[in-house]
Amino acid sequence: MARAEEGVVENGDARSRLVLAALRLFAEKGYEGATTREICERAGANVSAIRYYFGDKAGLYRAAFTEPMGDKPCHVSIDAYDGLPLPAALNRMFRDFLEPLKRGEELRWVMKLHFREMAEPTGVWREEIDTGIKPQHDALVSALKRHLELSRVDADIHRLAFAIIGMAVHFYVGQEVVSAIAPQLLATPKAVDALADRLAAYAVSMIEGEAEHRRLSAQQSPLPGS
Fold it and tell me: Which residue, 7, 14, 168, 213, is most buried by CB atoms nearer than 10 A?
C-alpha cells in the first residue's frame, strides 16, 4: 500500500513497488505524462531497476496494466471449466471473473488506467482485446452454441454472450456508481461471491429465455413450400 501523505509505496520488493507506483502515476498522468524518474521516486527504487525488471518504460506500463489484477484477471474464460454442466461452469467463471473486485482501492486505480488507455491508446488495450477478451467471448459463444444445440453461430448468440459477460463487466466499469448506490454489493469478499452466484443464475435465465425465443420462432416460421 502507499502512504498518501508521502506518496511512497512501502510494502513488497522493488519490482512490486515499481508496479504499484507506475499503476498510480500512469493512471493519473498517462503513459507520456508519467516519467520513469517520478515512478522510481514514488517506489523508492533506483532508476536502473526499471531496465532490470521490465526492460524499458513500455514493459513497466504493460506490467502496471495487467499484473495488479492478480492471478484472476478479468478475462477468465468459460473453457477453463470444460466438462462442468453449463450452470456450474458459469458460476465458476463469474466467481473467478469478479475475484479482483475484492482488491478494493487498488482495483479503482486499475480501472482508471484502463479508461485512460482507451482514451490515450498505446496498443496495450488492443493487445488485451486480441489475447484476452476475444478468446473469452469466442469460448462463451461456443459453449452457448453447444448448450442450445445449434448448427451455427448467429447474431443472437453473440448478443447473448455480450449480455452475459456484460453483467459482470458493469461492476468493474460502474464500480463507483455501485458503491454510491448499493455499497453492500461489493463491501466484502463474501458479498462479491454472492454477486457472482446471482449473476450466474441470471445468466442461466437469459439462456433459457433465448432457448424459448428460438422455440417459439421455429413454431411461427412457415413450413417450406407452404
Answer: 168
Calpha distance 124→131 (Å, rounded):
10
pLDDT in tens, 98-142: 998 988 778 889 889 999 998 899 999 898 889 889 999 999 999
| CATH of region 70-220 | 1.10.357.10
All three cell numbers of 218: 421455429
Query: Amino acid identity of 201?
Result: A
Say what the pTM is: 0.80
Tell me which of 56 and 5 has the higher pLDDT: 56
Only one residue has cell 450452470, namely: 87
Backbone torsions φ then ψ of 9, nearest 5 degrees: -80, 120
Match domain 2-66 to its CATH number in 1.10.10.60, 1.10.630.10, 3.10.450.40, 3.40.1350.10.
1.10.10.60
pLDDT of residue 3: 40
> CA 71, CA 50: separation in Å to the nearest integer?
22
Per DSSP, what are the bridge partners of residue 3? 8
Strands annotated E in 36-82: none
